[in-house]
Structures are given as C-alpha cells and as structure tokens.
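Quick one: structure for this chain?
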Amino acid sequence: MTEVIGVKFNKVGKVYYFDPKGSKLNVGQGVVVETARGIEFGTVAFSNHEVADEEIVAPLKPIIRPATNADYERLENNKIKEKEAFEVALQKIREHKLDMKLISTEYTFDGSKILFYFTADGRVDFRELVKTLAGIFKTRIELRQMGVRDEAKLLGAIGGCGRQLCCSTFLNDFHSVSIRMAKDQGLSLNPTKISGICGRLMCCLQYEQEAYEDLLKKVPGKGALVEYDGEKGVVTDTFVLKGLIKVRFGTQEEPVFKILDAKEAKILKKGKVEEPEAEENIE
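Got it. Here's what it folds into:
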C-alpha cells in the first residue's frame, strides 16, 4: 500500500495520484506539481489515503509544495493573461483567414507555454499563425484541435433536461454511444430528441443501457411469433420496463391487438434480428 493524494487540474477531469511527501492535505487545497506538461497548479480531489501498489502508474511523482499565496497570485495573473491572449489570437486568426473557431486559451503555470484550443471541420494549416503568436508572446505556442464533445465539456451549458451538462459537471471520460441504445430504450429516433447540445448522441443514453439489455432478454422482440391462451400472434410492440408486449392476433385484414404480460406468452419464433448499429465516433 502507498500513501497518495488525488489531484485534479480541471473542474471536470481525471484524478491523478501524487506522493504527498509527508504533507497532510485537505480536499480543495492547491498544490504545485510536475507533470508531462511541466510545472502545474492542481487542486486536491482526494486527501491523503492509501491505495494498492498496482493502482499506481509508476513512477509516482511527489508534489513540489502545497500552494502558497504567491502561487495563487500567479494563478490569477495567468487567468488575466489568458483572456488577453485569447483576444490577440482571435484577431490573428482573422488576419490569417483561417477556418477555425477558437475555444479557449491556457497558460501553463510557469508560463513556459500557451495552449490554444480550437475546433474546425477539417485539418487546418496553422503554421504561420504559430509563428505569429510566438513572435508576439515570446514563448512556446501550442494549438490543439478538439472535438465538439470536448467543446461542450469545456464551455458548459444547460441540456434539454434542464440541468447542467453531464460532461461539464461529473463525467471524467466520454463513453461510446450508439443509435442501438435509443432503439433498445424505445426512444424516438428523431435526431433533435436524442442528440445533446454538442450535436452528438446524448451521453445519458449509456447510463441505463445495461438494465435495458438485461430486460430485453426476458421480452420477445418485435416480429416474434408467440402463443397465448391457445392463440398464435405476432409481437408488434414492446414495453420493456413494464414487462408487457403488444400482440396482433387474427388476420391482417381483421387484426385484434392485445397488451399481454411477456412472461405469460410462449415464444414460438424469435423476431427478426437487426444488424447492430456502429458506435458513434466521439472524437
């Protein structure tokens, strides 16, 4: 077992383990640490606790120090400079006539690099823009293209449910979502009803999918031939959560529809099996 603290670098994002180096740190306290990007300011997400050695990605880096007043001042100064850099970059993007949308700007804590995040429909040749920005800010410049899901996560918004977006409040990672999930859950396939503010399928379709898959095993699918009380009929609709099915008896010309308990219907032949939908590309 190894003593660690969990550190976050964004409000919503992954938690990384660091060696507290003997310091007792509280949740919400600032720390200065070294990462692959350089010296960074993070916030304690989990206070001192022990984890199994196999959960740690070696080597476990120690914190440099708990944040001081000077560190907090630098953090605030960086935020001011980020706003200024954003405006300058917007102007230079227009001058270079680049088809890209600037989303945010981020200074590394030690000021050794400025990161500009943007979205675009395709590849963008921003080499001249990088040279221009490097000449203005006299530091390393990095441009990173992000997807529409990442944009929504970064900017935040109110979803169709009336709550803040899941991705900007508690989701650490994006999971694959497919149209098959909407079908399994009996939702309207109208894109405007099952798409999030980012324009992609809603992340919340994935939350209950496992439960639906388990329930669907106990309910005959549409098109299945079933027998009930000596009569044979075809399933025309399912109500998975209630465990009910809608069955058509009689002929096509004179059909009789009944809502039945799925457990009481004997399956004679399963319905047509559709090919599974490809998972949506979340990049």
